[in-house]
Structures are given as structure tokens and as C-alpha cells.
Amino acid sequence: MFAEIAGKPILAHTLSVFESCDAVGEIVIVTGENDIEAAGDLVGRFGFTKVRHIVPGGAQRQDSVSRGLDRVTHDVVAIHDAARPMVTCEIIERSIREAEAVGACITAVPVIDTIKSAKGESSHAPIVTGTVDRSNLYAVQTPQTFRTDLIRRAYESAFAEGFYATDDAALVERLGEKVSIVQGSYDNIKITTPSDVDLASMKLGGSHSRTGIGFDVHALVEGRKLILGGVEIPFEKGLAGHSDADVLVHAIMDALLGTAALGDIGRHFPDTDPAYKGISSMKLLHHVGELLSNEGWRISNVDAVLICERPKIASRVPDMVRGMADCLGVEPGRISVKGTTTEHLGFTGRGEGIACQAVASLWKP
After folding, report:
1. What is the tens place of the pLDDT at every residue in 118-141?
2. Which end of the chain is more exposed for a tag (fewer CB within 10 A), N or C?
């Protein structure tokens, strides 16, 4: 789960989907005891705020899920394989609504291949014994979603009788309770083989992806606050401009807009419009994020470099990243900000202004 696909670990891809779902209030990760620290580092690195607990698993899958259920506080729980990073918010939310209404549901897709039954022979290849009617057959995926009290009761009953199953719904079925099916996706594969990795890399990297650049520069003047990445930086000068002149945010907005072929910030927020006089660039960044979302674009990553001799920004970068990530509706791990100097050369080297370059990558699912 820590192997990288399309630029980040499989587990991070999976968590990103649940993190972005409004219907999900908390996440419990169950992993091997030796991977607890690595999972914690990953959560911190990508800024997953909904992860409440990371707990060690047990000897078998059923033992592991049971330990996770012990930490759940909500009335409905979705149990999902981390190895299925291509699940979607729509599937998750559909499952939650169904579990609230029915009590238990599984995600599945109709079987589309012809299914044969066969009998093995020691000296020959298996011999077909019949063709199975596939009209009522489904290939089961995750999440499998339940009212929490129901699945806990199913687990207690199974453990009391020493019964182990390969999925959670089977335990509910043993109680005589109904389990309904919600439509999954044929893309919602469980990554198991090298070919699965190749397919996931293509899908998660975006079948339609683009990369673009942005650049901005503002002069340093007295009598203005210095705002960078939405954060006020204590300094004797600020940046001149029609808005708050946040050069970092402006470069990032230009990169994002350019990547999506939506023009530039001058087109969307002209400095001749009094509505934008003194406005926080973070508000403009939020609007850019909405424009991208409306066009179906998702942000893969943003990398920006501030160019100035002074002030030093390293200590404030985490605050900048968190604020901009919040404006764009992405996890902080997708945004990188760093600073550099020009060794006292040029206008930035003389302290006359600050420049910023940014690169952005977008994709459409």
C-alpha cells in the first residue's frame, strides 16, 4: 500500500477519495503493526484530517476489521480495501445512503464474462462440466457498508461460533438480515498484479492530463502589508498592486488557468475593475478552483518557487500551503512552495521586488 502509483502511494490515493467525501466523518486505518509509523507519516505528509485512528490488524482479515470497528463512533460504517484506490465519492455516498435505508449493502458489478464450471484431472487440463447462468451473478467489490450496530452484532455472532468469512456481508447474511447491492464500477479494481498497477497508473494519472506554468512579479514598496500565500509576513515593505498583490497566489492562479486553457488572471480579475481593489488573492484562488471544478479538472500537483533575497519564508510555508490547499479543495500534499535567491543579482537581488514561478498539473478522470 506504500508503493507509488501516479506520483503517490496507493494508500494515499484511496484515503484521498474518502477524505474528499462530505458524507465521511472519520477514517480508521487498519494496517500491519510494522506499518503503523509509516501510515502515520503518510497521513501527516498528505494532510488527511479525517483520520482519527491507525490501529494494528490481526491474524486474519476478519480480526483486523473487528479491531477497526472497535474505534468507529458513527452510526454507519463503510469497510473498504485500501488496495482499491479507484473507488469514487459517488460510490461511497451511494453505499452510505443505502446502508442507512436498508442496514447492509455491498458494492458490486454484474459479471460480464461467461462463467464455466470445470472438473480438474491430474494428468490433463480441467474439463468443462457446464456453463453457469450469469444473469444473477455479481462480482463483489468494496466498500461494504453497514449500520454499525448491525455489523458489530454480526461479528460478535461469528466469533462466538468460530466462523470466518472472506467478506463482511457474509457475516450479516448469517444473521438472516438482508444485504442489498449498489452499483460499483468496473474501474474499481483491487490492485493485485503488475498489470493492475499499469492500469491504475493510467487511470489515476488521468487519461487527460496537462501541465502549465505561471509567472508573476510585484515591486516592493513602503506602506503596504506583505502577503504571500495568504499569510501576512512581517517585513518593512509590501508588494504594490491592485489587489493585495500576493505574488505567490497570482503565479499559481496563472499556472492553473493556463493549464486548463482558461486564460489568465488579467482576464478573470482585471486591475481596472474596482471590485478587486484590495481584495484578498485567496478569494480569487478559491474562484479559480471552482472554475477548474466546473470544467471537470482535478489538481494533480502545484509547485511554486518564490524568488527574493528577503524576507526568509521557510517557517511560514506550512501555513501558506494549508491555506491555499483549503481554497482549492485539495490535500496539502499536492502543493509545494519553496524560496530561492538570485545571489543579489537583478531586481529581486537588489530587493526591489519579488517574483514567483509556478508549475501546475491537472487531469480529468
Report:
1. 988 767 788 899 999 999 999 999
2. C
Residue 271 is given by DSSP the state T
Categorize the per-residue pLDDT at 365 as very low, low, confident or very high, splitting at 50, 70 and 90: low
Single out the residue of 56, 80, 68, 215 nearest to residue 152, CA to CA.
Answer: 68
CB contact at 8 A, 127 and 119: yes
Which three three-digit cell numbers place residue 84?
482499491
Right CATH for 208-364 from 1.10.10.10, 3.40.50.1970, 3.30.1330.50, 3.30.870.10:
3.30.1330.50
Give the sign of the dihedral formed by CA 149, CA 25, CA 2, CA 196: positive
CATH of 4-108+140-204, one of 3.90.550.10, 1.10.760.10, 1.10.357.30, 1.10.150.20: 3.90.550.10
CA-wise closest residue to 88 among 180, 4, 167, 14: 14
Q: What are the domain boundaries of the chain?
A: 4-108+140-204, 208-364
Cα–Cα distance for residue pair 140/245, rounded to 1 Å: 53
| Closest to 237 measured CA to CA, from 218, 253, 215, 250 | 218
